[in-house]
Amino acid sequence: GIGSKSAFAYTDNFTIVNYHRGVKSIFMCHVAGSAEGDLVRVSQQPTVEEDGLEIQIPVAAKDIDTWISKAKQFFSHWKVVPIFEGNTIVIDKVKCLFESNDWYITEESTQAKVLMGNICYPIDKHQFDSVDTRILDCGIVFKAQIGDVDIAASREGLQYTNRTIKYFLNKLSTLIVILFMMLILLKTSKNWKINS
C-alpha cells in the first residue's frame, strides 16, 4: 500500500532489512530512476536473527528532535512499540482511566480520537450537528476496526462520509449509556466516595 512508500515523503532513498526464515535480505529503495520509486536487492545472506523487519531512514541532524517528538506522539497508542536504533526514544504509553473493547478514556482531557490500524486520527466534533459533543473533549479514543471509518486520501485525517458519521453516532450513543450506568453503579455502591 501507500504506507510502504511513505519514507519518500522525506527522503529520496532508504534501506529495508528483512530477516525471514534464516535469511537476511537488504533492499535499497530510491526514486532516482522512476517516479514511483525502485526497490533493489543489495544482498542476501544466512542469519541467526529472529524474523523481523528493519527500516533505515537517513534523518538530517536538524530534524532529529522533530522526529523524536513525532515518534513519541505517534507510537503512544501502539500495543507493540518498535525498537529504535541510533537514538534512545522512550515512548510513554497512553494512561487509561477506563477501557472497554470499543473505546478508552485517557487521563488527559484532549480531543477525541479514533484508533484504527494503529493510527490515531483526531475527531472533528464540528462534523456532528445533531448531538451534544462535549463528551468528545474528555480524552476518549474509539477503537475502530479497519474499514469502520473512512480516511482521507492523504491518510492524515478522517473523511466524514455518511458511514463515518453513522459509526461515531452509534458509538457515542452507546458510550453515553455505558458511562451513565457506570455513574449510577458508583453512586449506589456502599463504598463510593470521592478521594481528594
Number of helices: 2
Number of strands: 11
Which stretches are poorly predicted, pLDDT < 50 over at least 5 residues? none
Distance between the termini: 50 Å
Helix content: 10-25%
**Strand line-up in the sheet with most strands:** 5-6-9-7-8
User: What is the element string, with H for helices and E for strands?
Assistant: EEEEHEEEEEEEH
What oligomeric state do these chains adopt?
A: single chain
Mean pLDDT: 85
The largest β sheet comes out as: 5 strands, mixed
What class would the helix/strand composition place it in?
alpha+beta
**Overall form:** elongated
Computed CA radius of gyration, to the nearest angstrom: 22 Å
Our estimate of the beta-strand percent is 25-35%
Structure characterization notes:
- The protein is α+β, with helices and mostly antiparallel strands and 196 residues long.
- Helices cover 20% and strands 28% of the residues.
- The protein contains 2 helices and 11 strands, in the order E-E-E-E-H-E-E-E-E-E-E-E-H.
- The strands form 3 sheets. It has a 5-stranded mixed beta sheet with strand order 5-6-9-7-8, with no helix packed on it. It has a 4-stranded antiparallel beta sheet with strand order 3-2-1-4, with no helix packed on it. Strands 10-11 form a two-stranded antiparallel sheet.
- The longest helix has 27 residues, at 162-188.
- It is elongated, with a radius of gyration of 22 Å.
